[in-house]
Amino acid sequence: MKKTIALLTGGTTGEWVVSVKSAATIIQNIDADLYDVYKIMLNDKGWFYEPADSIKIEIDKNDFSLTLEGRKIKFDGVFIAIHGSPGEDGKLQGYFDMLNIPYTTCDALTSSITMNKGYTKAIVEGIDHLYTAKSVQIFKDGNYDINQIKQNLRLPYFVKPNSGGSSIGMSKVKHADDLENALEKAFQEDSQVLIEEFVSGREFSIGVFSAKGKITVLPTTEVIPTNEFFDFEAKYTPGSTQEITPGNMSDEEYSRVHQIVKDIYKKLNCRGIVRIDYFLEHETGKFYFIEINTIPGQTATSFIPQQVAAMGLTLKQFYADLMKETIG
C-alpha cells in the first residue's frame, strides 16, 4: 500500500530559493512505487498545491489536507524541505505534532534550539574532544559594549546572525573598526548576533542520519573556498569552492570525528538527516564545532547528495531509508 506524502518546500526567508532546488532533487528520487508525492509550496501568500496546469489549490490548514477534484487527500507523512523559517525552526514541527502527522526532520524542540547557534554551542559544550570558538552573543536592543567585546575577543572575528542559514548576513572582520558595519549587516537578518573568534583550520561538513535503528555517518566533505570564507556565493555558485568528498582525514581523525558527530546527534536528540560543520584546527587537529543544520540542502551542488553518492548509496535508497525511519 502506497503512502501519500506531502513534500513541503518554499519558506518565508531568503533561503526559499535553495528550498525549491532541494525539493526538485528530492521529488526526482523518491521511490514512486512506495510513495505518492504532492509538492506543497509554502510562502507569505499561503500554502498551495500546484498541479502541472499551474492552478493553485489551497491547503486546508485545519487538518493539512487537500481537496482535488472533489476528493479530500490527507497525508500519511510530510517530507519537510524548507530551509530556515518556518521549516527548520520548529514551527512546522509543532504544527504537525498537534495534527499527529509524522515528518522527516528533528522534533520541534531540537529544531528550535538548533536554529539558535549560541544556544546550540552551550548544549554541545562538554562532549569529549569537542571544542567551540570563544564567542559573544548579543541582542539588537540589548546592552552590549562594543569596546568590551573588542577587548574580550581576538581578531579576526566571524559575525553571524544567530538564527540565519546559508551564511546570509555573515562577515569576517579583520579590523576592529569594521565590527559596527558587520553587526549592522547581521542585525538586518536577525535580532540576535553571534561574534566568534576565528579558528584557523581546515573546514569540513558531514552528514549524519538515523535509519534501520542505527546512526550512520556519511563520508565527510572538505571545503576549500576561493572566497575569504564559505559564504552564500561560495555555497551556491558552482566552481567557487573546491569540495572534496570524501575529505582527507587521518585514521585517528576519522574515528574521533565519527564519535564526536554521533555524540552531537544524540545529545541534541536529532532524527532524520542533519549536517554538522566543523574545523580541524591547524597545528593541533582539534575538532571545533561550527554549527548544525537540521534540514541540509539537497540541491545538485549540496553536500548530502555528494556524500550519499560517495558512500555508494543511491538517493532513491537514501530517501526511502530516511522516510521509513521517520514517517514509517
TrEMBL record:
What cofactors does this protein use?
Mg(2+); Mn(2+)
Signal peptide stretch: none
Q: Briefly, what is this protein's role?
A: Cell wall formation.
Tell me which residues make up the ATP-grasp domain: 121-324
Cite the Pfam families for this sequence.
Dala_Dala_lig_C, Dala_Dala_lig_N
Q: Which EC class is the enzyme in?
A: ligase
Record-level GO BP terms: cell wall organization; peptidoglycan biosynthetic process; regulation of cell shape
Report the protein name in the record.
D-alanine--D-alanine ligase
Catalytic activity annotation: 2 D-alanine + ATP = D-alanyl-D-alanine + ADP + phosphate + H(+)
Under Enzyme Commission nomenclature, its number is 6.3.2.4
